[in-house]
Amino acid sequence: MQLTSAQIFHHRWCAALAAQDTAALRELYHPDAVQLSVSTGRTLLGAEAIAAGFAEFFGIAGAVNTTGVENFIDLGTSFVAESTRSTGFAQATSYDVFALDGGRARFHAGGSISPRSPAALPAQDPAAPGQAFFRRLWDAISMQDAATLTSLYAPDAVHASVAGTMRGGQVITDSLRQRWRQVGPPQLRSLSCFVEGPDVLALEGIANVGFGPDVRLDVEFYEVWLLHQGRAVFVTNGLISPRPAELRQGLQHYADNQIRNIQTVAQGLANLHAPRYWY
Q1: For residues 42 and 53, is the Cβ–Cβ distance under 8 A?
Q2: Which domain range does residue 206 map to?
Q3: Which DSSP string corresponds to 56-81?
């Protein structure tokens, strides 16, 4: 089986974590790379600082072994991996989002799916570009303002998730508008973590999302955005709770109950109107 460049990078990165090889990790990041940790709230700038961050972590937790990959979204020059990793102290399911440039990571954002330990929210800062972008985004979503929403995406923007990949800012906006017409826009309940660096932001929170005409659920999610000149060029999101398989199972259970209820009502109506015979 021939591996893609994203898979090769991920294998090398996982091997370096398992070997506690900070030199190899340093070489996997661009000299001016940006790394965001949603779990700690830290933003590290440059390969040297990122390697030092890994060295600090190894000194506390030791080697990090990747024991399984639950989801892997491969976009060539970027990818999303949801993986199970273990140290000598604990096992965790984590997500990592990489944007590659010349075979090395230009951007890396990651956090924990379980166990949960998000960093505290930063203070609101009107001058922070990531916070300003996110406020404009959710204002547009809340008002169903398609024109503003379109302006927040670059023409060649990419949206990736386990549900599929959309390419093009207008395509992304049109898809969102169609979903709004079917189930209504999502409602942001709260944020649990928000981290930003130059041209990148990562966050976790809870949103109320429609999955059918009369089905809305609160879901815990993560998102990572890459920006260029204030517009999104890449965004990915994923479910923290419920997990995708749990959500599919829950929605299927709901649909099955609805079918049974309809069948019960139909049978009741049939019995009500059935001819009655007296003997």
Answers
A1: yes
A2: 129-253
A3: HHHHHH---EEEEEEEEEE-SSEEEE
